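Example (one chain per record):
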Amino acid sequence: MFENAVAVFMVGALIIYALMGGADFGGGFWDFCARGPRALRQREAIARAIGPIWEANHVWLILVIVLLFSGFPVGFAAIMTALNIPLTLMLFGIVLRGSTFAFRKYDRDEEKIHRRWSVAFGTASVFTPLVQGMTLGALATGRIRFAQGSLTSGYLAGWLTPFALACGIFALALFAFLAATYLTVDTIDAPDLQNDFRTRALWSGGLLWPIAGIVFVLSKSGAPDMFRGLTNWWAPYLLGMTILLAIGCLLVLWQRHFLWARAAAAGEVTLVLGGWSLAHYPHLIMPDLTLHDTAAPAATLRLLLIALCAGAVLLLPSLFFLFRIFKGSQIIEPKK
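Predicted structure:
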């Protein structure tokens, strides 16, 4: 019982991280792809959108790790052992991305130096979500095996499979779509840039469909337990809602209702990650480790839930005021 409640908090934090931190990674992807006469202005718009709150977004990833460590210590040890290489690469990418973003801002204002930092920032922004998606995909492949508490499948199992790679590409595409949609709101004062990001949101949103189809097809052989979960009784309803939101998001983007598009994109990402979590339940690592098998004692989980509720009283209002201060001017959609 308690382990399920902690798992819900973990999934919630993961979804918020995708909606906020994932959009930042997507912004870095578009920074990397910026070309043409408006490339510099596009990068400046992305930096303005990311700048005020980008460090706060990693709070949610830290929360996921802390909950995993405290609530599921056996699972934490297993994941950190089996996926040590991709998780180390992810950490390196996060640090590289953050440092290059700061150095580009405060280094000498020369085109050559600016371009060098932009390449490093964009590369890290592409590489990191790719590895994050591969890591999540690896947990579902069934190739990470444990016997009597020991890893038996080695350090390369799972995360280098075609299914995991497809999950990485899907994560990158999802973050790129989310960022482009958000940026249509953040560029309210620059119609030409807003139109650039609208076009990118439409293209990336359309590309999500075939990529998602590839992930689903590969899951049949690459993650059979996940595939069975995705064909459960609830799956058609969740899939139907996701498709409706995806179509609705593209329609309101086409009609330039950007605030509605942002809400629809966030809902689409929420349903995608929610469906992944339901299909993965009750496993932490398929097929050997479940939430129940790896959970901490009930007393520990109970105290952890109390701490989470108490912390939310401080964290959520702080987050609200942070967005209110730095994003409050964007709450009204301009007339067409």
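Caption: The mean pLDDT is 90.
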